[in-house]
């Protein structure tokens, strides 16, 4: 295949070094290679392939190597035009960063998620001297401090995407540097970063081009911090506030006023949110994906306002929202005709409510219906029959398997629906 340019073989665990040697001898036009999770390959085999393809532009070997891939790293010296390198899960050393800095001047994306050996010094060596990265994945690089972020903001001011999940040594100083120097930043993942606080969000709000911001498990932020973000970052389309217990209705009011282009929002376990906050979300016309698990202060009133306002809603997760009654689900069935995925597990919906939802939502393809204690076996039977033509996935409690008629189970499977028993 002399014209083959891109080959993705993710998770092909039966392919070994012999297979890779065939590629190394052929495919002269190969420019992009994704070998992630091919765990039977050695670094020598990949090095052999690299040596035969000096024009390679993209390499992904995430979760392939458990030891430092010495020969691969040495082979990178020949890839002068390399633009993307993903090594997630592989151990690295200072020599790796030096080789990248000296040889791969055109590199724009690097993936070092869960790589052991990533230090402040390594990041400084990586970014200094002309390498201008746009995308950096430093997920779970727990040794990094504010000094690493300073090095990035000094040398990579055109950075667009920065993933820093579980980098717990970072403080508000890092957000100050990002806000000061990285005005083009579009995506930032700060999930589970303990040092993120309201002051940090104030600094970060100067990154006015932010499109995606992930703050899940950042327990030190409050409504005040979200106010800064909502006031200045009007381009945000995706926001993750998973288990941010300091976030309540005031934050949602600010978001509904300032972030009108919001499409995806995660509020799961934000226990301070009430109907008032969910009603504010009804003013986000482009909202299509909402996770709001275990919001015990939200009732049918809030869900009704949401369904009435958010006509583009396609994915909704209300698992464990035990105080939402049928009135909310009836509104959902009537107004949310674009819903494709829904999680109603552990909700107080009844036979009537479930049948309305499953029967009226004509685009519904994926439904999670575990532990619906107010729904009878007959209610499940009727609801599943009403939606079996279009349903592709359904999740049910395993005990229900003994009570449903074999006919409905066979009908669902015959129509291509995959049933998952929980």
Short description:
This is F-box/LRR-repeat protein 15-like leucin rich repeat domain-containing protein. InterPro entries: FBXL15_LRR, Leu-rich_rpt, Leu-rich_rpt_Cys-con_subtyp, LRR_dom_sf. The protein is an alpha/beta fold and 422 residues long.
Distance, first to last CA: 45 Å
Beta-strand residue fraction: 5-15%
The helix/strand class is: alpha/beta
Rounded average pLDDT: 95
**Tally of alpha and pi helices:** 16
Protein name: F-box/LRR-repeat protein 15-like leucin rich repeat domain-containing protein
InterPro entries: FBXL15_LRR, Leu-rich_rpt, Leu-rich_rpt_Cys-con_subtyp, LRR_dom_sf
Domain F-box/LRR-repeat protein 15-like leucin rich repeat: 103-253, 257-334
Q: Which descriptors would you attach to this protein?
A:
422 residues; alpha/beta; 17-stranded parallel sheet; 16 helices; 35% helix; globular; Leu-rich_rpt_Cys-con_subtyp
């Amino acid at each position: 295949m002399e014209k083959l340019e891109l080959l993705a073989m993710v998770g092909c665990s039966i392919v070994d070094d012999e297979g890779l040697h065939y590629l190394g001898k052929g495919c002269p036009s190969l420019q992009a290679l994704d070998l992630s999770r091919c765990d039977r390959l050695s670094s020598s085999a990949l090095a052999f392939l690299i040596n035969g393809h000096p024009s390679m532009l993209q390499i992904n070997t995430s979760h392939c190597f458990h030891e430092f891939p010495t020969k691969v790293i040495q082979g990178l010296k020949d890839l002068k035009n390399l633009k993307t390198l993903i090594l997630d899960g592989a151990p690295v050393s200072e020599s790796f960063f030096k080789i990248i800095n000296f040889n791969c001047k055109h590199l724009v994306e690097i993936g070092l998620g869960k790589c052991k050996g990533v230090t402040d010094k390594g990041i400084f060596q990586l970014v200094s001297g002309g390498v201008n990265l746009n995308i950096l994945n430093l997920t779970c690089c727990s040794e990094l401090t504010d000094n690493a972020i300073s090095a990035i903001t000094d040398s990579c001011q055109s950075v667009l995407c920065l993933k820093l999940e579980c980098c717990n040594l970072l403080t508000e100083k890092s957000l100050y540097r990002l806000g000061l120097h990285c005005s083009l930043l579009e995506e930032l993942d700060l999930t589970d970063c303990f040092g993120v606080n309201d002051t940090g969000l104030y600094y970060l709000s100067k990154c006015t081009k932010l499109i995606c911001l992930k703050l899940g498990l950042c327990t030190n932020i409050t409504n005040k911090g979200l106010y800064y973000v909502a006031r200045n970052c009007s381009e945000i389309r995706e926001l993750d506030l998973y288990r941010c217990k300091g976030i309540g209705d005031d934050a949602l009011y600010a978001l509904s006023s300032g972030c009108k282009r919001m499409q995806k929002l995660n509020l799961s376990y934000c226990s301070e949110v009430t109907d008032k906050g969910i009603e504010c979300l009804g003013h986000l016309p482009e909202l299509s994906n909402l996770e709001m698990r275990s919001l015990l202060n939200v009732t049918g009133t809030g869900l009704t306002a949401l369904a009435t306002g958010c006509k583009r809603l396609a994915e909704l997760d209300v698992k464990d929202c035990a105080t939402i009654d049928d009135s909310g689900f009836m509104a959902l069935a009537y107004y949310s005709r674009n819903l494709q995925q829904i999680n109603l597990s552990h909700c107080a919906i009844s036979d009537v409510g479930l049948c309305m939802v499953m029967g009226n939502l004509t685009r519904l393809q994926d439904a999670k219906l575990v532990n619906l204690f107010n729904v009878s076996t007959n209610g499940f039977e009727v609801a599943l029959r009403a939606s079996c033509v279009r349903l592709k996935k359904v999740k049910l409690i395993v005990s229900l398997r003994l009570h449903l008629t074999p006919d409905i189970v066979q009908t669902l499977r015959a129509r291509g629906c995959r049933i998952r028993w929980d």
